[in-house]
Each structure stands twice: as C-alpha cells, then as structure tokens.
Amino acid sequence: MTGASALDLGPIEFSPYDYRIHDDPYPTYARMRSEAPVFRNEEFDFWALSRHNDILSAFRNIEVFSNSFGVALDPSAYGPNAHRTMSLLAMDPPNHSRIRSIVTKEFTPKKIAALEPRMRAITREHLEPALDGGAFDFINDFAGLVPMDVISELIGVPYADRAELRRLADLLVHREEGVFDVTPQGFEAAIELFVYYEAFLIDRRLHPGDDLTTQLIETEVNGDRLTNEEIISFLFLLVVAGNETTTKLLGNAWYWAWCNPEERAKPFNDPTRISDWVEETLRFDGSTQMVLRRTHIPIVIRDTHIDAGARVFLLIGSANRDEDVFDRADVYDLDRPNGDLMSFGNGRHFCLGALLARHEARIALDELVKHVSDYEIDEALMARVHSANVRGFATLPTTVKVR
Ligand code: HEM
Description:
The structure is a single chain. By secondary structure, the chain is an alpha+beta fold. It has a single domain, classed as CATH 1.10.630.10. The strands form 4 sheets. It has a 5-stranded mixed β-sheet, with helices on one face. The chain is globular. The termini are far apart. The structure holds protoporphyrin IX containing FE (HEM). Protoporphyrin IX containing FE binds next to α12, α13 and α17.
C-alpha cells in the first residue's frame, strides 16, 4: 500500500473491510487526501480517490469511469452481471439512459410530496410503540423499520406482506464478522424477494393499482416499455439502495446530535432547522461512504497512471470532509452551507431517491423532536455495522424523555 507519512505515522492502510476504518475512517481519509490522493491497495486490487475535485471529475467522466461492473467490491455484487440485481446503477449509457428516462418519472417532487402523509403515518406507527417504554433501540425499533415500509408503500406492497419483506431485507443487509459479502441466509432472502416481486408484478399486470409498479408497467418512452425482468431488478435495487442507507442516515443524525449538544439544541428548539440537521449529517457522516467504478480506458490522475479495467473507489465520505471545499470540515455544524455535498453522488447516476430520502429523514426527525425533549445513548452497548460501503449503526440503545 502506498503513502508514507512525514510525521512517521507509517504507511497508509485503507481497506473497506478493515474494522478500524469502520470505527473511524476520517483520519485515514485526511492522510489519503494529503499524502496519497490516488491511493493503491494491492491486496484487494483497487485504487481510491479521496479529494473532492478528483471525485467530482470522476463522477462526470463517463468516458473513463464505468458502472457496468456494479459499484461495490463484494464478490456477489461485482462483475458483468451486476445489473441483474442493481438495475440501472450497474449500467452505462445507452442502457442506463433508457431505464433512467422511464423510472425517473416516479421520483418527481410532486410524486414524493404526495407520499408525505403515508410516510408520516408509517413513521408514527413505528415511533409510538418505541417511545412507550422510554427506552428502545433506535435502529432495530425505529430507524430500521421505516425506510423499507416506505419502499413497500411506494411499490404498492399490501400492508400484510410488509413485515415479511422487512425481515428479508434485513437478512440481505446483515453482515457477519470476518465475512465480507452477503451471508448464505442473505442469498436465500434475495431469492425470496425476487420471487415475491415477480408474483406481485404478475398480479399488478392483471390488477393495476395506484403505485410505482403499475406506473413502471404502463410508462412508455418513445414506444419503449420495461420488461418484467427489468422492473423486478429495479424493485430489488430500491431495497438495496434506499433501505439501509436511509436507516443509517437517521442513526447517524441521532448519534451526532447527541454528541454535540449545542447543535442538537438547534432543531430541538426550532424544528425549521431539521433540514439543516439532515444535510449536515449527510455531509459529516453520510451512510454511503464510497462507490466503485471500473475504467473503460487508461487515465492519468495526478501523474499516476491507471490502466483500463482497473477498479477505482470514489470516497464520497472523504470528499465531504475535504478542507479545500468545506471550512472546518471536521466540525459538525448545522449552520454551514452545504452546497457541495457529495453524499448522493453526482452526474448521471445521481441518487434517484435523494428527494425521497431527505423527505423521509426530515419527517422522522420532525416526529422525534415533537415527542422527545431529550435523550441519552448507551455508548457502551451501541455497535456499528461492518459493511464495505455503508456506514452507520447496527444497534443504538436510547433512553428518551418524552415531551
Ligand atoms: C440517505 C440515503 C441515501 C443515500 C446516502 C444514497 C446515496 C446514493 C448514491 C451515492 C448514489 C450514486 C451511486 C453511484 O454513482 O454509483 C445513489 C444512487 C441511487 N439511489 Fe440512492 N441513496 C439514498 C437513498 C435512496 C433512496 C431512498 C432511494 C429510493 C427508494 C434511492 C435510490 C437510488 C437509485 C435507484 C440509484 C441509482 C441511480 C442511477 O444509477 O441512475 N436512494 N444513491
């Protein structure tokens, strides 16, 4: 691994599988930005870009940086068949443009605003029992439940099936110590999800509803419609891209506000600041820390030659802490302007669910602020999830003072 420190800190060690990186990646990112902005990891055969401007250029340079092998290093997610489970996220133009032009119609501000009452009802449904006892696990009793139910709502999944789909989605994202891929139970859950969505889609073709699935069946762009296989891959992608990411964003917001009482006071005293709480958490400790690209053709970045066919990580979490872009980047500060946020990516693959995620997070935090006057987190019992690109808590034991 490259990079030797002037302060004699030894060579930089960075791997998305390293538990020390999961604990706190930010000091390593800072060293990478200053000492090895084009970092090489021989063991796992990847490069990593850590500076905001290099990452922005890479997001926009689709001639060189391809999504066609997927965006994650995990063996089950990487390769030429990644689009089967990752849909448009694992495609380049023209395939990407074709699918995106159809699905994007379902994520307009109007459609997301129309979902608001249901998002609020789902939030309350899970928050009320959690608050009842005064002590609960913020992730397992609340933040881990809402996002998958919102996705089910969007897709049109009947209420009675939602708990089971949550169980399957949980198995899919569950990681075990030392195993850096989906577990065997996770694979079985993925198959069950596919089988469920296939049957659901067949049913929707016979009995259209007022939901995203029906719209995806019916939408036609220039005489072109999505096939069953394409719709199912897209529904599956929503579970992978929109579920755990939003759960972890909520957990990170809850945790960092607790660590910073002055910042916490801002949204708790003035709920119009909730959106600043969401934005600063996205910047300071976002749930998607990195995405992978594969080079179509060779490229030279900062005098370093990268071959065609190479794997290159874009370290989103590092871009969001780059001092060249964010003043006092290591300070959690709800008053800062956050215009250059990289948390949802950039360019063609910019997160389709960004608006939904922001809306959902604001509603969840708004309901919390309405009902909770103060809270504590049991740091001794909290635990992080050990996943290669998603950062956040697996468990966050909380006690609350209810208003
Ligand atoms: C805090 C929550 C979220 C974060 C941090 C996040 C982050 C991201 C990022 C960084 C990308 C770009 C990946 C790349 O360039 O390779 C992305 C893409 C995507 N996200 Fe999100 N996401 C979140 C929530 C959601 C939600 C709620 C949904 C939908 C229910 C969603 C759906 C998607 C889809 C479909 C794509 C692929 C877009 C494309 O390839 O054109 N995301 N997300």
